[in-house]
Amino acid sequence: MVIHSIPEIGNVLRNAAVFNFKNPPEAIMNADSLLVQVEQLFRLLDERKTGYVLVGGIALLTYVEGRNTQDIDLIMAFPSLAMIPEIQISSQDLNFAKGQFGELQIDVLLTRNPLFEQVAKKYSTVKKFLDCDIHCATVEGLILLKLFALPSLYRAGSFERVGNYENDLSVLIYNFRPDMEPLFSELSGYLNDTDMAEARQIIQDIEARIRKFRKANE
User: Fold this and answer.
1) What is d(CA 10, CA 4) in angstroms, rounded to the nearest whole number?
2) Stretch 107-125: mean pLDDT
3) For a 10 Å CB count at each end of the chain, is N or C smaller?
4) Is residue 22 part of a domain?
């Protein structure tokens, strides 16, 4: 298992900002401050005793080698989000909010969505980063969130995000071999029959690729 510290998480975000040439020059110039701001954010979340769970690409990095990401994803209830006014909200709907904490982009999955609330309650754990305890989604929680999102991403034609999410699922399943049936049972309460069938097919395809890879490396 690969465990990353707060400075390492900051480095991931910094490198993603520096090497994304779509970013404006000022974003690249400010990238070094991300190292400090990551630590400041998690200390504020801890000191103000907000209920949150770290998810997304950064949470993935606590389990496996992951891809670059330019944002921090958190599950939070809206009252908890309001306890951190330093996060300047730029947009919000029923299930999601986007904001900035300094140069950090913060994506919030609001617990008004029942699956997000369930992941926060049932599929989270505490990890030690420096002298902070960070609340992080479990492997199973991350898998649930990815599978929940994928059918709608397919419908939206979001090819890049589909590829990223399927790769995330592949590395989690390859490294941890989770029992998928309890997760399908959990997910069935939040997806319709058509999307559940799509989610099962996605996992079947991933497991077939994993079997092929393992057989080739025996």
Assistant:
1) 10
2) 97
3) C
4) yes
130: left (phi over 0), alpha (psi -120 to 50) or beta: left
Whether residues 50 and 128 share a domain: the answer is: yes
For residue 48 the two structure tokens come to 């103000």
Q: Is the pTM of this model over 0.70?
A: yes
Residue 29 CB neighbours (<10 A) = 13
Give the amino acid at 137: A
Which domain range does residue 14 map to?
Answer: 6-137
**Angle 193-216/139-156 helices, nearest 10 degrees?**
110
Query: Is residue 152 helix, strand or coil?
Result: helix
Nearest to 87 by CA among 48, 137, 128: 48
Least confident of 17-26, 67-76, 85-94, 155-164: 17-26
pLDDT at 65 over 80: no
Closest to 36 in 3D by CA, of 128, 131, 101, 107 = 101
Is the confidence at residue 68, as pLDDT, over 70? no
